[in-house]
Amino acid sequence: MGIRFVLVDLDRTLFPSLEFAKDARMTALRAMKKEGMKASVAKAYVELMKVVEEMGPNHADHFGELLARLGERKEGSAKIIAAGVFAYHRAKTRIKPFPEAGRALARMRREGLKLYVASEGRSVKQWDKILRMHVQEYFDGAFISEELGVEKGRKFYAKIARKLGVRPGEVLMIGDKMDRDVEPARKAGMRAIFLDRKKKTGGKKRDVAKNLLEAAEISIDSM
User: Kind and range of the H or E element at 208?
Assistant: First the structure.
């Protein structure tokens, strides 16, 4: 039996997460500067990226920790932190999927494939992205590491197959990271497509797509 279920990664697969994150953080820092942060936006951005790397993207107080490292967390700094948080969340309204995403997802659904998001992170945060992009209508559900209780790896994908009640060979994963999306899915017995938007692999290779429309065609051909 061919492919019946398609898993789709979220960050950098459905939308340009790196570009969005930089834009949102810069927007937040400019707002903090306006409310009294003394450090330059450029200096604050470099320090903020260190905070994110060390404490993880899901830490609850990035901007507070940033001010502490800049030597600016003191009485009255709550207003500056709040300005950053508000501006960051306001910037989220600008989140958009890649231009071809809607067409690719709709094409796979029309052909009868069942689609699920497969993502790493906090469930509410990942669903927030899905809803803001208005792509929830294409998916039958989502498998997120926080809810599954395991990070992306062979066990993550094996657990998804068990939850779907199907053989791993009936599931295909689409993602942009070889070490988190493609290789572990294949080790779990699934088929996987490497989404190579920057054409790192070079040449035409099997199960490599340069965008979601190409990935959709490979998925449909695998049914």
Answer: strand 208-209
